[in-house]
Each structure stands twice: as C-alpha cells, then as structure tokens.
Amino acid sequence: MTALRLVHVSAAFVAAVCVTVTLAAGLVEPGVALAFAALTAVGELALPRAPEAARATGTGAPVGQPAPLGAAGALAYALLGEVAGRPAVHGAAQVVTVVLAACLLGSVPHIWSGRTTTADHLARRVLTVAFAAVCFQPLYGNGLFEAWSGPAYVLLLVALLVLTALCDTVLAAALAHSRTRWPFGPLLRDELRGLLGIGSAVCATGAVMALAVAVVGLWALPVFSLPLLLTQLALRRYAAVRATYRQTIASLARATEIAGCTPVGHARRVAALSEAVGRDLGLSGSELTVLEYAALMHDIGQLSLVDPVPAGATGTLPLQEQRRIALLGGAVVRQTGVDAAVAVVVERQADPYREQPLAARIVRAVNAYEEKAHEPGAGGALRALEELRLGTAGEYAPEVVESLARVLSRDCLTLPVAG
Fold first, then answer.
1. What is the pLDDT of residues 88-147, one digit of tens each?
2. Of 269, 380, 260, nearest to 311 (Cα)?
3. Residue 63 pLDDT
4. pLDDT at 34 over 90
5. Is the dihedral of CA 417, 267, 403, 324 positive or negative?
6. Partner residues linked to 86 by β-bridges
C-alpha cells in the first residue's frame, strides 16, 4: 500500500469512528462546537490552495499549504480544557467530527472551482487534529493535568502543538512524495522550513486561543483570530503577486521565440525538465525558483545576435561565442529586477561545469538535451541522452546527466509539448 493510500485510508477510518461515536453520544456543548466550527470554516474559505500558493511560500509542495486560521482554530478546540472557568466536556471524537464538518463546509467553494487537492488536505487535517485531541482530551478529562498550572501548562500546550505540527509536516511530505515521486528528504526539509514561518504562528495562536477561551470564554476567539486572519489574507495576496511575477518572466522568456531565435516552447520545456532534475538532486524551494527562472530566460542573450543560430542551438557555436551570449543574457536579466542569483546562473551556463553552480550545470545539460532531442534526424531522446553521457568527461556534470536519465524514466513526469 502506497503512502498516499495509507494516509487516506487511515484518515477515513479515524473520521468514520469519530463521527459514529459523536452521533451515538450526541453533540456536547453545541454552542462551543459551533463557534470553533465557524472559525475553522472561515479559515478554510480564505485559503489560497492553488499551486502558486505553495510556490509563493517557498515549499513547492504540490499538496498546498494548510489554512493558518483554520488550523489554529482546530488545534485550539482539540486542546480546549475549560470554557470561561468551567470544564469543557467534549471529547476527542467530537473534536474530529466538528473539525471535519467545518473543513468540508469551508472547502465547498474550492471544490466547486477545482482549485484544491481536497482529499489530501482533509486527510492531513483529520489525522493531525485527532493526534492532538487524543493526546490531550482523555488525559485532561481524567485529571492528569491538574498539577500543571501557570507557565508549566502553557509549555505543555506548546509542546503538544509542536508535536502535532511535526506530524503534519511528515504527512505533507509523504503525500507529496507519493504523488510526485520527488525525493522525500528535500520535501520534508522544505516543509520544516515552512513550519518555522507560518507554522510557528499557527502553534502560538492555537495555544493562545485555548488559554484565552478557558479564562474569558468564546469572546476571545474573534479577538485572537483577527491577526492570523489578516496574515492569511496577506499570504493570499502575496501568492497572487508571485504568480503574476512568474507569468511576467515566462512572457519575457518568449521574446526569443517571437524573434525566431529559439523553437516555440523551448524555454518552457527546459524550465520544466530543469525543475524536475533539480528536485531529483535535492534542491530546496527557493533554489528551485531560481533554477526555474534561469531556465526560462537562459536564451535571452540570443536577442543580441544579428543572425539567429539555426533552431537556437547555441551548443554548436565556439565556446567564446557561447560565453558572450551567456554574459549578454545575464546583463538583460539583471535589468529586469529579478534575483541576482538568476542572472548568475544565466551568465555561467557556458563555463566549464566544474566551475559552475549546480543550477547552471542543470540548465546547461537540460538545454543540450532539449536541443539534441528535437534536432531533425538526430535519433530522438535516447540518442540525445547517450550523447550527453559521452560528454560527461568535460562538458556536462555526470551527476546531472544521471539525474536527467532518472527523471526521463519516470512515468509521472509531464512536460510541455512542442508548440
């Protein structure tokens, strides 16, 4: 059984058990349940779960980012021991049932627009909330936490939230690995990096909400949820800006195609394949962004040529001419305001591979493969890959060529087609 199926089956089993128990016992404290359900649903409604959102936050993970406000509200309900000084008597099963219902309600617009991987998101939310609720509710109900008070109780809640966040991080990386077959280690590293950012805010807000409701009641929810809601809306706006920024770079990269310097779709194919190779080699989210932008604009220097190179195949030019074109391309990239690291990759793609940064090695090898594979009468992809392997003695990095071979052999890879 794959990790994807295992996570989904486990979440479905947990949800079915909790819903059955809740329906049999009846809903306890419906007012409290409704308040936390509304908070979680609002967080889900404001969630940007498009692919651009994952890239904007630097993770690059295809399963998307969890809703910060929804996650904080769900975790606060799981760790709620008192409401305005009186004990809360809801159990772990009710926590999971209420959160599941709120997530389903908040996901309706996303499902309708087709912008979300709902099954993965719901599975993660059910399992993480169930973990937190099972660790807290039975022990609190049996009085095992009565000795914990003041700062010790706060630290206890924070520790449980951190453990829950780590579980969610592992689940997110496992789901992404199962769906894409990208290496698990880099995916987990990117998820952990995201946990240090918005994840820490979610944990802190969840703990504060649980503590505040225990003292002043449900009026604390709108007060302490507002800052995180504003942060979530800001992240949504940031994701939209980053998506527009990437579209602008992609449009700029098409200038060489419009000018007749490169074949139609060449830059997109090189960028897609370079990103796949970068993931296989373990690059982080920010490094993949630099790699993608550099791959999109790697031929921009050809606009300076009086006579275009046939089919844009600069690999056939003398080395000095290749370097001149690369330097001109880097100068153009620097004028666009893109990250200077992108310009460095573009400038150094014609250097000896032992002197290049890894991103430049990837762009160089992938670009050569793309040119050779689409060259008329060249023998296609297998012949192109064999030529790259023969060139690993001096032109192409051996580890990049082997990574390219692994990527090409995977059925899950889908590249843009020519034209």
1. 888 999 999 999 999 998 888 777 776 555 788 889 999 999 999 999 998 888 877 777
2. 260
3. 40
4. yes
5. positive
6. 83
CA 295/CA 368 separation, integer angstroms: 12
CA–CA dist 41, 417 (Å, integer): 40
For residue 346, what are the contacts with CB-CB under 8 A and spacing of at least 6?
A: 294, 297, 298, 300, 301, 326, 329, 330, 333, 363
| CA 295 – CA 360 distance, rounded (Å) | 9
Angle between helix 3-25 and helix 118-141 axes, rounded to 10 deg = 50
What size, in residues, is the chain?
419
Contact between 70 and 207 under an 8 Å Cβ cutoff? The reply is: no
- For the chain, the three-class secondary structure string (H helix, E strand, C coil) is CCHHHHHHHHHHHHHHHHHHHHHHHCCCCHHHHHHHHHHHHHHHHCCCCCHHHHHHCCCCCCCCCCCHHHHHHHHHHHCCCEECCEECCCCHHHHHHHHHHHHHHHHHHHHHHCCCCHHHHHHHHHHHHHHHHHHHHHHHHCCCCCCCCCHHHHHHHHHHHHHHHHHHHHHHHHHHHHHHCCCHHHHHHHHHHHHHHHHHHHHHHHHHHHHHHHHHCCCHHHHHHHHHHHHHHHHHHHHHHHHHHHHHHHHHHCHHHHCCCCCCCHHHHHHHHHHHHHHHCCCCHHHHHHHHHHHHCCCHHHHHCCCCCHHHCHHHCCHHHHHHHHHHHHHHHHHCCCCHHHHHHHHCCCCCHHHCCHHHHHHHHHHHHHHHHCCCCCCHHHHHHHHHHHHHHCCCCHHHHHHHHHHHHCCCCCCCCCC
Better-predicted residue by pLDDT, 418 or 291 = 291
152 is written with which tokens?
């010790």
Contact 193, 200 (CB under 8 A): no
Would the pLDDT of 47 be above 70? no
Rounded CA separation 222/323 (Å): 59
What is the distance between the alpha carbons of residues 121 and 66, in angstroms, rounded to a whole number?
Answer: 7
Q: How far apart are CA 161 and CA 140, in angstroms?
A: 15
* Residues 118 and 107 sit within 8 Å (Cβ to Cβ): yes
Token readout for 250 is 């992609």
pLDDT band of residue 316 (cuts 50, 70, 90) is low
- Whole-Å CA distances, 165 to 92, 125, 138, 349: 18, 11, 20, 40
